[in-house]
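Hi all, long-time lurker, first post. I run a small reading group and we've been trying to get comfortable going from sequence to structure in the token notation. Rather than ask abstract questions, I figured I'd post a concrete chain and ask someone more experienced to write out its structure so we can walk through it together at our next meeting. Sequence below, copied exactly:
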Amino acid sequence: MDQNTLNFGGESPRVRVEIRDHVAHVTLVRAGKMNAVDTDMARSIIGAGEAVADRSDIRAVVLSGEGRAFCAGLDVASFTEFAGTDPEARVMPRTHGDANLYQRLCLVWRDLPVPVIAALHGVAFGAGLQLALAADVRIAHPGTQLAIMEAKWGLVPDMGGMVLLPQLLRSDVLRLLTYTARPVEAARAQTWGLVTEIAEDPLAAARELASEIAGKSPSAVRAAKALIALAESGAPADQVLYEESLAQTGLIGGRDQLEVIAANMAGRAPTFD
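-- Answer (accepted) --
Happy to help. Here is the structure in token form:
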């Protein structure tokens, strides 16, 4: 196997990572189950995210799903598995810093130091929606349906959704979708803030955007993502202003910035080590 292709999930891979031209193409490959999440899938998604985080050569990520859907949510068979265990023992342990296993499968993508673009088609329900929300940008096919599905099963969003959703939705929209579990189509989801762009071929559009980002200064893009995360965290203005200046100080005159200047002056695309 090519060293730039990684499979996660053992003999029955659940996630594939292909690295090309500084872009990590991360694909959910449980197509027969519409990429529904069970425990093995959760561990595989986390493993893929952590593997990407460990590589300094990656400048952007495209997150997508094979088959008919991006991700249909939690595998229904998992409800039977969960019913036979102590819910507190399964849900409450903080196995990944501040998060449990299922929260980490989404938040590992938010925490990546490089931009993540999710390509959505079919459905993004429940766990699938929360996974998509961890991306920086979501590009959806017009026919995509999205839903905060947990109310259908008598549950609440618990995979990082309440960290991610309030940053994207008005409170009334968040409450409507959470209380009802209603699916919404991509056009409505875009007006509400769940979808960034709509494209007939969302995967191609996501790859094009990732390639564009990969052509920018890697150090500047990483610094920008970190600054945005700090600003969105509610940090006080004086801290954000200080970190903004500190990041700029680290970029000015650096190797990447000098290459950008040289490339712009020469009318060529920059090249980075």
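A couple of things your group might point at:
The two ends are 25 Å apart (CA to CA).
The chain has two domains: 5-214, 218-266.
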